[in-house]
């Protein structure tokens, strides 16, 4: 059983998320722009990041909605694409009889648009998004809810994540976690350089 993150893990969405956030912040919370670094928030939901940046709930809500609107425009323009090896990995897992679920802090509307544009949607048995969970990564309850929803035994699951927030959520839920696109994993995870490396590992898996 594989529980996969989406943004930054299977698709290269970091530049689009950062661009959308920076434009939304410039429009609605300009005082927060000089110190904004998307890398510090990667893995958290848009609503969570907006709440950290805005001075009040109303501004946070407007900021989150505007960022999502801008991000979806970028997705529609082809700014978000799968990483090399993403489809090969998911196809190989399916060929080996491994079930894959998507566990992402993205909003459902944004995730559906990315999956449609990347042709990855059919690879997952089900999808859990930020709209389904009352907390955000790195809270372990994010993955905990996924385990309960799909009745997954933690000892039979492998998590694929790219961010420290995501790894912390998965490890905190007691899950074996692979930290992809890095040589230095977050605490509790095993580093994997790229998705093509994982394809090779799955090929030799018994």
TrEMBL record:
Membrane spanning residue stretches: none
Lineage: Bacteria, Bacillati, Actinomycetota, Actinomycetes, Streptosporangiales
GO molecular function terms attached to this record: sugar-phosphatase activity
rRNA processing found in the keyword field: no
Classification via Gene3D superfamilies: HAD superfamily/HAD-like, Putative phosphatase, domain 2
InterPro entries for this protein: HAD-like_sf, HAD-like_SPP, HAD-SF_hydro_IA, HAD_sf, PGP-like_dom2
Cross-referenced NCBIfam families: HAD-SF-IA-v3
Organism: Nonomuraea phyllanthi
Keywords attached to this entry: Hydrolase
Name under which the protein is recorded: HAD-IA family hydrolase
Protein's UniProt keywords contain Hydrolase: yes
């Amino acid at each position: 059983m594989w529980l996969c993150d989406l943004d930054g893990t299977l698709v290269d969405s970091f530049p689009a998320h950062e661009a959308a956030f920076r434009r939304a912040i410039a429009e609605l919370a300009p005082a927060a722009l000089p110190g904004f670094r998307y890398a510090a928030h990667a893995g958290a939901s848009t609503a969570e990041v907006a709440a950290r940046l805005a001075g009040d709930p109303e501004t946070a809500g407007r900021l989150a909605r505007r960022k999502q609107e801008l991000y979806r425009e970028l997705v529609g323009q082809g700014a978000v694409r799968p990483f090399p090896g993403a489809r090969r990995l998911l196809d190989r897992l399916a060929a080996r009889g491994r079930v894959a679920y998507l566990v992402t802090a993205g909003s459902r509307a944004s995730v559906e648009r990315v999956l449609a544009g990347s042709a990855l949607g059919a690879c997952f048995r089900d999808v859990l998004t930020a709209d389904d969970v009352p907390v955000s990564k790195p809270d372990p309850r994010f993955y905990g809810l996924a385990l309960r929803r799909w009745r997954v035994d933690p000892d039979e699951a492998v998590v694929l994540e790219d961010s420290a927030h995501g790894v912390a959520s998965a490890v905190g839920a007691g899950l074996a976690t692979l930290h992809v696109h890095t040589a230095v994993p977050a605490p509790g995870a095993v580093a994997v350089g790229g998705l093509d490396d994982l394809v090779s590992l799955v090929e030799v898996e018994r």
